[in-house]
Design brief:
Blueprint (H helix, E strand, L loop, with lengths): L2 E6 L3 H12 L5 E3 L10 E5 L6 H9 L6 E3 L6 H4 L1 H14 L5 H4 L3 E5 L6 H7 L1 H9 L10 E5 L9 E3 L2 H13 L3 H4 L3 E6 L13 E12 L3 E5 L3 E8 L11 H4 L13 H4 E3 L8 H22 L13 E10 L5 E8 L11 H19 L13 E6 L2 E2 L1
Helix pairs in contact: 1-13
Protein name: Tubulin-tyrosine ligase
InterPro entries: TTL, TTL/TTLL_fam
Organism: Rotaria socialis
Amino acid sequence: MSIKVHLKMNCPYTNELIRNVLEERNDLFTLTDSSTLNDDNTLYWLEYEELDFDMLYRLIKESNKKKILANSYCIRKGLLRKAHFAMFVQKYLAKQPNSVLRDHYPETHILDLIHPDYLEEALNEAFELRDTLEANTKENTEPIPFILKASILDKASELCIFYTQAELEEFFTSKYDDDDESIANVREWIVQRYIKNPKLLPIYQNRKFHLRVYVVAERNLRIYVYDGILALFASFPYDAADNDQTFDRLRHITNTCVQIESKIDEEDLVKEFFSLESMDDDLRSRIFEQIKSIVKDIFTGLHNEITVFQPIRNAFEIYGFDFLIDENNQVYFLEANAFPDFKQTGNSLSILIKELFQNLVQHIVLPYFGYEESSEITQRKLHLVYEKQKTF
């Protein structure tokens, strides 16, 4: 019996690659636009808002034997919302003080702010941040930079690098005075210590870059890290001397959605990490091991936080994890996103995304429906780093 597939992703780039991979196995998959929502042997690969989570949970509760698989979990705000994740890390480190997250997640503070008039009260709650910002104003002190991020916004929205409380107040006041409803509705913010010594590669004009790592979660719960890693570069050379007055998004922010303002070619903005020049195999391997260790520890803790992260046995999900490497080759986890923007990979590296989907179909989708894992060989692989009651 073939597997019926409902496929509809809003991004044409992503939708086409998934369709191509499924059509390679047209002996097993049948793409369809019409069937009942709970047909047996059905794969739903849809946008989050289109998935019927009530149906998925009902099938689990009823111990239904129907084979239905969806491409997203319902509850995962503990991973995806920056403030929720920061609270999880605080709680987890209190229980596990030797966790690798202590050294691989930047110092983070949470601001609960409904209006700029209440910033003083919010900073009183985050008193350690308040004290550091005050110290930054003193003479003969090397100021510590911080970066502000909205908890629920992505694509580098509403980022602000600052040193003092006055600069933070100016950012919020200017945004609210413009009657920006989107920011007025954002209540949770995080403030992280800005990593001002990123790893720079002279061969790439010392432009700052971060790593986009695809992490796959399946059922309840296995976690894989994909070794087809992207290096996303800023458009212009990094300048650590930039301050709040001269801050240039095209030097500091490495998201490709920001770089559309530049005229740099796609191939110069997005590269494959394991093909970067001037980094030897040993260094790349050590960085990858750090990444796997961080991902494993994140899900080791999150798996027990069922109110904010709830994997279910008839679903899988792909996340985009962002990491930064500093000049000492230490890796820092920055944030995670669901339904990552695959098109930022560009056309020249689309094979990397295609192989991700091929691996997912071969090693996760087909076994779920009772088929043996495919023996097809891809250059890039999924690496199992966490399984319930097991660590690797």
